[in-house]
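User: Predict the structure for this protein chain, please.
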Amino acid sequence: MLVLPWNWFGWKRGRAVGQLEAEFRGMMGVDFAVAVGSGREALYLILKSLNLKDGEEVLVQSFTCMVVINSIIWNKLKPVYLDIEDNYNFSAAELSKKITSKTKAVIVQHTFGIPADIEKIKKVCESKKIVLVEDCAHALGASVDGRQVGTFGDMAFYSLGRSKVISCVNGGIIICSNKKYQENLKRQTENLKVNSTGVIFQNLIHPLICSLAKFLYFSPIGKILMVAAQRFKLINLEVTRGEKEAIKPALFPTKLSNAMARIALIQLDELKSFNKKRREIAGYYFKHLRIKQKINPAEFPGAIFLRYPLQIKNPQKVLMAAKNSGIILGDWYSSPIAPLDIAIEKTEYVPGECGHCEKINSRMINLPTHYSLKEKDLEKIVKIVNQNAEN
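Assistant: Here is the predicted structure, written as structure tokens:
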């Protein structure tokens, strides 16, 4: 959805940002919420507010995105990697094994909107006096026993990015339920600058260009449109070339713009219906797919399934078969730290240190659960996977 051009006076500052923050405070039952430029900026600010010493350790799972690791590196901290289980999250037992005297914080990622075993993880963190940060980038609206994820840790962040549960192209929310950290967070966030009008315009025009390119994807025009839009900086990339090299953007972190907040507020009103639809689609996949390694939504009643994950022997064949049929499936994540073409040495990840994760990486595809999908789309996706996937 675009904010109309003649409203440009309200693109940077306005009431929508405060309204969005108030919505999150009410929804999560916390008294601190602040809207920033992106989820990655939210994590960066959270870690910065802890005032940790250079080289102190932050435990984070493998099977994650480079932008998460960048937030650790840019605060001059050391990422220590945890292996994952078949629910794509790490366990409390794995966490306990990796804690050292230098461990100061843990980031728990609710991957694909499937909640981690957060109550056990929280107990470990409390016993060791380690700060618990919840990465809810995939998990807005997910819950454990009726309690929203993001409210178990000391602090949490949500992404409003282009591939997330609700999207204003770029945006993030920090919440904090531990009053001990709120004052530092306030200091880190109260004087942030808003991105330029040009960057806001890029975000506003992004859905229009991408929708048109998607419609024309299998013609030369669609590809030319996307290349031209990126070259002439009409749109920006989800992960920039610099971020893949662990280079911090010039203006980082930033405050969420009013224009983006307006879009987020509209989508937030639909959150429950979006997530209900995602669970229904996940249930459809579970019922109709003939794959052994699949997740039963009934076993994760609080999950919202941002994507539906599958492990198969021949992911590239299935991804290509789908593409040839006009469907783009996902490969989140085909490497321990994604995307695959990052400068892996910058992440300090040592190949082989998270063996189960790497096994899953080699078998990984995931299916869309977007609310716009129709039953005929799901039938087509299931048919392609069932005809091409090897268990």
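The chain has a mean pLDDT of 92.
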